[in-house]
Amino acid sequence: MTAFDRIRAVFWESGRLHLLDQRRLPTVEHYLDCTRWREVAEAIRDMVVRGAPAIGIAAAYGVALAARERSERELAAAFEGLAATRPTAVNLGWALARMRRAHDAGADAGALLAEAQRIQAEDVAANRRIGALGAEHLPAGRAVLTHCNTGSLATGGYGTALGVVRSAYAAGRLTRVYAGETRPWLQGARLTAWELQADGIPVRLIADGAAASLLASGEVGAVVVGADRVAANGDVANKIGTYALALAAAAHDVPFLVAAPLSTLDADTASGAGIPIETRGAEELLSIAGQAIAPPDIEVWNPVFDVTPARLVDALITERGVVARPDAHAIRRLLSAPAHEEIP
Ligand SMILES: CSC[C@@H](O)[C@@H](O)C(=O)COP(=O)(O)O
Where do transmembrane segments lie in this chain (predicted)? Predict the structure, then answer.
């Protein structure tokens, strides 16, 4: 059994939402059970569940939990409270808008639960397609560098950038994966290294500061990352440090690829300048696992996402096709294509 089959970050069972507590990985595999939407909102805010698609899916289940309370006022509070948990990943607003449309069309608690389950199943299917399409775009017989965690833990299952990695490795196209540790929350070290190791995919962990030297070495054939929001002009918001990787990749002629489902595309935000960038607490920089690593009273700036300009993106891999050098025209075309049509 692969890790993809085994890892379930978000799932519904016996009338409860189960969330794998990602704050405790890789040392402890512990699930939080949610029966109220407020618990789900807290779990998203506190990073029990994280990763753009997984946040959207968890929020959709949160709405389904709220609907069980049979109070329109509570449901309205749930829509508002869940939307306010984290600002950058557009999948959150996308999933909530879909749940609202279902509710407005008359869905009861059971039908809203079914809608949340559909959102999750569709995300897994999109990831599988992204993986298959993206694998063909990786130069064969080389390593890839990735950032943050974009795997089963960050999605409905399988993964976006890690979906590409999984598919490419299965097809024999990949020598190994370099995972940047992803300071300060260490998604690369704690989550990506764990997921890939569990799948038997060769993975080497690097400090974020080692990335430029690695790209200069010539071993890496492509950088593959996910996204929290792709603006209408192709600018990409993703985990802090992504922009630096894109700059270093361009300097060394290494293709920089972004893998994301259509639910991550935001036609309503013209460019990266309009994407809200979350900043988190100083404690994330001041300590690791409870151990102080800086003077406690030092001033801190902790933006947890950055924006990579579209001109640095060599390809955007979606379930509807792979777009080279994405721009406003290409994004419009992707979003307006009929669902079944694939962009060549
Ligand atoms: C498929 S996940 C894509 C992104 O959400 C991922 O790269 C990322 O930046 C996650 O950030 P996080 O702060 O861990 O939620």
Answer: none
- Are 90 and 229 contacting, i.e. CB atoms less than 8 angstroms apart? yes
Is 91 among the annotated ligand-binding positions? Answer: no
Element (H, E) at 237: strand 236-239
Is the pTM higher than 0.95? The answer reads yes
The CA angle 8-11-15, to the nearest 5 degrees, is 150
Residues contacting residue 189 through CB under 8 Å, at least 6 positions apart: 179, 181, 182, 205
User: Is residue 208 helix, strand or coil?
Assistant: helix
Helix/strand/coil percent split, the chain, to 5: 45, 20, 35
Please count the structural domains in the chain: 2
Structure tokens at 65: 């939990």
The reply to whether 225 and 255 lie within a common domain is yes
Is residue 107 a part of any domain in this protein? yes
Q: Parallel, antiparallel, or unpaired for β 291-292 and 203-206?
A: unpaired
- Per-residue pLDDT of 16-34, as tens digits, reads 999 999 999 999 999 999 9
- The type of residue at 243 is Y
Do residues 326 and 292 both lie within one domain?
yes
Quickly list DSSP for 10-47: EEEETTEEEEE-TTSTTT---EEEE-SHHHHHHHHHTT
Task: Look up the domain containing 239 and give its range.
Answer: 132-336
* Stretch (H or E) spanning 143: strand 142-146
Residue whose CA lies nearest to ligand 1 atom number 6 = 51
* 3-class DSSP state of 312: helix
Active site residues: 228
Distance, CA 54 to ligand 1 centroid (Å)?
9
Residue 140 maps to which CATH number?
3.40.50.10470
Pocket, ligand 1, Cβ cutoff 6 A: 50-53, 89, 148, 150, 154-155, 160, 187, 226-228, 238-239, 304
Same-domain check for residues 283 and 185: yes
DSSP 191: I
292 lies in the same domain as 169:
yes
C-beta atoms surrounding 132 within 10 Å: 17
